[in-house]
Amino acid sequence: MTTLARSCGWCGSACLDPMISHCASCGGPLPLPRAQEGALIELGPPPPPAPRALPAAFRREVLVFKNVYVIIGGLFVFVFFWTVLFALIGAPLLYLGWTRGQKRLLALSNGATVQGRITDVDRDTSVRINGRSPWRISFEYPSPGGRAEGWVYAWKRPELQPDDPTWVVFLPEDPSSACLWPPVR
Ligand SMILES: [Zn+2]
Fold first, then answer.
1. In this predicted model, what pLDDT tens digit does every residue of 91-119 receive, in sequence order?
2. Rounded to 5 degrees, what angle do the CA atoms 88, 89, 94 make?
3. What φ, ψ does residue 46 adopt, rounded to 5°?
4. How far does residue 4's CA lie from ligand 1's centre (Å)?
5. 22 C-alpha vs ligand 1 centroid, how far in Å?
6. Angstrom distance (rounded) from CA 174 to CA 185
7. Which of 6, 7, 9, 15 is nearest to 35 (CA)?
8. Which of 86, 111, 153, 163 is most buried by a 10 A CB count?
9. 15 alpha carbon to ligand 1 midpoint, in Å?
10. Ligand 1 centre from 45 Cα, in Å?
11. How many CB atoms lie within 10 A of CB 183?
């Protein structure tokens, strides 16, 4: 049994006690700790039935403060507000980030639940904010239209690894809205 710290995907707290199932800081459900290095992580309990309550601070981070497209779009607006680049690049990025964030929140609060699998975990070096690149976690899951793929960004090195099983929440009418449960950040 390892006692690697788990990171809470809701508030970012490090949770050192391997026996607890919910974050001591925010109460959000935690992933199970990996039993041993090299082993697949065990699937924790499934998400509760919808609608699921999401912490307000988590909502703000998904929509704005940890939203890659909103941050980059915001920088464009801030730096290039006096040029046409603002309208050509900044505004579409803001819109893309905001709608993607809204869909992600809707999937987490109301989405259908399926079991999926992590397919890839890698740094996305095409994105750099304050000298840091986010981790891109790709996953696959069964959707009404067949096998679907999704991805999420994380700013902390993820504990998830390829082939790990995971819960996925998604909007059946828009499977591209898929998100991991519990979320990563
Ligand atoms: Zn937490």
1. 899 999 999 999 999 999 999 999 999 99
2. 120
3. -65, 160
4. 16
5. 8
6. 22
7. 6
8. 111
9. 8
10. 17
11. 23
